[in-house]
Write a structure and sequence with these properties.
With about 120 residues, the chain is α+β, with helices and mostly antiparallel strands. About 40% of the residues lie in helices and about 30% in strands. A hairpin with a 2-residue loop joins strand 1 and strand 2.
Length: about 120
């Protein structure tokens, strides 16, 4: 009795394997990311406070899309952070104006304490 001939996998089989590999990689990266970010460091929390403060500052500007931040510092620990810095942006007349800002963050909310 002759052995049945092996059929080549073909394009469909190759595509199916490629999709399976991509799905496995995506799942692995998501699992790794969730473990990596499970315990954010104090530097991570300060950086998050800084980004949140920039967003609050932008909301207070006439032309938020022109905002350019500089001299930023984030200080504090245990979820209580103060972010200070300068922001250059256009005013109503199109002139670039520099303002100094200060924000306070408790880890969940950000309060703009000064802009000017």
């Amino acid at each position: 009795m002759p052995k049945p001939a092996k059929r080549p996998m073909g394009c469909f089989g190759f595509i199916l394997i490629a999709v399976g590999v991509v799905v496995a990689i995506v799942i692995a990266l998501n699992v790794y990311g969730s473990f990596r970010n499970a315990n954010p460091t104090d530097e991570d929390k300060q950086a998050e406070s800084q980004v949140a403060c920039e967003n609050v500052v932008k909301n207070g500007l006439k032309s938020p899309s022109t905002a350019s931040f500089s001299n930023e510092t984030a200080t504090g620990t245990d979820g209580q952070y103060t972010v200070t810095g300068d922001v250059d942006s256009q005013n109503s007349f199109g002139a670039m104006i520099r303002n100094h800002f200060t924000c306070e963050s408790d880890g969940t909310t950000v309060h703009l304490t000064s802009l000017g």
